[in-house]
């Protein structure tokens, strides 16, 4: 009985020693840097580093969702004011959720394909900026579409634009970007 007690005491002592050793070892563990090392861009006249960051921007198309759903299906969806007393009863693209003239909620109307328009003006884009992920340079074109109150902006997929040039709307239905870049114009006259 006494022998057993001594053995238990010894066992406890050993256990205590092991635990103490573990704690001591833990104390020697170093805090590690787990990030990505920044790149130094310059040190003179002041130090500048490159510190990469990435974010996901959550965005809703809200009441304008039918426009973007339409692009995926190869359709240009416009809005129209249903108020008969409203001075503006033409169609709007980009669409408006509410009428800018009388604030009535708009109704949706798809434009029948093919949508043929006429270039009203154009400009060459050399630097598009974030949100317009297109190879540059490209032609940004403002296109007059019959029946519209607006002259929407988009881009010419190929060719050289000129004022009055007839163009046809096409759609990126395969691998859509789910943005307004999913419709664009192509020259129509030679077709
Ligand atoms: Zn209205």
How would you describe this protein?
This protein is of the alpha+beta class and 191 residues long. It is 18% helix and 27% strand. The chain has 2 helices and 10 strands, in the order H-E-E-H-E-E-E-E-E-E-E-E. It has a 5-stranded antiparallel sheet, with no helix packed on it. A 3-stranded antiparallel sheet has the order 4-3-5. The longest helix is centred in the first third of the chain and has 27 residues, at 2-28. It is elongated and about 105 Å long. The protein starts with a helix and ends with a strand. The model has no long low-confidence stretch (mean pLDDT 91). The structure holds zinc ion. Residues 81, 83, 86, 88, 99, 101-102, 104 line the site of zinc ion (ZN). Residues 81, 83, 86, 88, 99, 101-102, 104 line the site of zinc ion.
Please outline what is shown here:
This protein has 191 residues and is of the alpha+beta class. 18% of the residues lie in helices and 27% in strands. The chain has helices at residues 2-28, 65-72, and strands spanning 39-42, 48-50, 76-80, 91-92, 107-111, 116-125, 138-144, 153-156, 166-171, 183-187.
């Amino acid at each position: 009985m006494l022998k057993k007690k001594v053995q238990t005491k010894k066992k406890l002592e050993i256990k205590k020693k092991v635990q103490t050793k573990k704690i001591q070892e833990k104390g020697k563990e170093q805090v590690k840097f787990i990030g990505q090392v920044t790149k130094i861009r310059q040190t003179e006249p002041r130090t500048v580093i490159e510190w990469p960051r990435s974010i996901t921007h959550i965005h809703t198309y809200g009441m304008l969702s039918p426009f973007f759903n339409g692009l995926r299906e190869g359709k240009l969806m416009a809005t129209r004011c249903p108020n008969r007393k409203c001075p503006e009863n033409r169609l709007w693209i980009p669409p408006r959720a509410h009428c800018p003239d009388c604030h009535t909620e708009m109704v949706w109307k798809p434009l029948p394909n093919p949508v043929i328009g006429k270039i009203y003006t154009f400009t060459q884009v050399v630097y598009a900026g974030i949100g317009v992920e297109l190879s540059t340079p490209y032609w940004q074109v403002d296109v007059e579409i019959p029946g519209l109150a607006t002259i929407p902006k988009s881009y010419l997929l190929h060719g050289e634009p000129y004022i009055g040039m007839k163009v046809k709307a096409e759609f990126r239905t395969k691998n859509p970007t789910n943005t307004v870049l999913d419709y664009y114009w192509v020259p129509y006259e030679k077709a």
